[in-house]
Every structure is written in structure tokens, then in C-alpha cells.
């Protein structure tokens, strides 16, 4: 039987990928009590970075938002693994942290990060409303345009 969150993902036309393996000396997520802390996820699609470069300088705002959305999809794939395959165990999206690769004059980081935040609410409803930090950075691993990390509560 498909769970409530899986059904919602299907309604949105989202198929979760296999969780990405770490590329360095870290783990993809950490569990502590009812918390799942997920390492930063880049906009991987089928094993390749789908959005590279700097937002506002070669990467459009629309593509930046799409990159943040894809990062959130990859976060959810990690959370699903942490929950033993049952996303209905997620009781709340507590926090998202966004890193936006951009030049020094770019100021629309929050708009880009809304790609992830909006999807969190679309998928998890009111439980998807979260605290958030969004930071502009000069570069990200693999020249990714965006990276998003998260903290989730499970029951």
C-alpha cells in the first residue's frame, strides 16, 4: 500500500531517485532520537549534476529555483532511506539550509531557495513549513549551482 507522502509525490509527478552515495568522508544522513540530519544534496539527476555554474551569471533564476527543487527531491530520497522506506514517519521538516553559488552582486538567494521550500510544503503540507538559512557562496562541489541540507523530525 502506498503511503500518504508517496501518494503526494506521485500526484506531483515526482519519482525519488536512489539516494546519492557520499563522495568524501561523511555519511549521507545521521539519526539522533527523532531527528534526521541530512548532508547537503546537490542537484543530481541520474548521477549527473543537472545545474552547474553561478545563479545570476549563466544560470537563470528559474534554473536556480529548479536546482533547489531538485536538491530537495534528493534530500527526501535520503530521508526515505533513513526512515526505512516509510516517508509517513516524517512528522516535520524542521530546517533547510541553502547554499547558492552566485557572484558578489547577486542578492536574490532567498528567491532561489524557495524552489526547495515551496516543494517542502507541497509534499509535506503544514508539516513542511520550516526554519531556513540561505547563503550565497562563490562555488560548490562539482560546480553545482545550489546545495541544500536539511533536518527532519520523524515519529
From TrEMBL:
Pfam family, one: YjgF_endoribonc
InterPro entries the record matches: Endoribo_LPSP/chorism_mut-like (IPR013813), RutC-like_sf (IPR035959)
Endoribonuclease L-PSP/chorismate mutase-like domain boundaries: 6-144
Name of the protein in its database record: RidA family protein
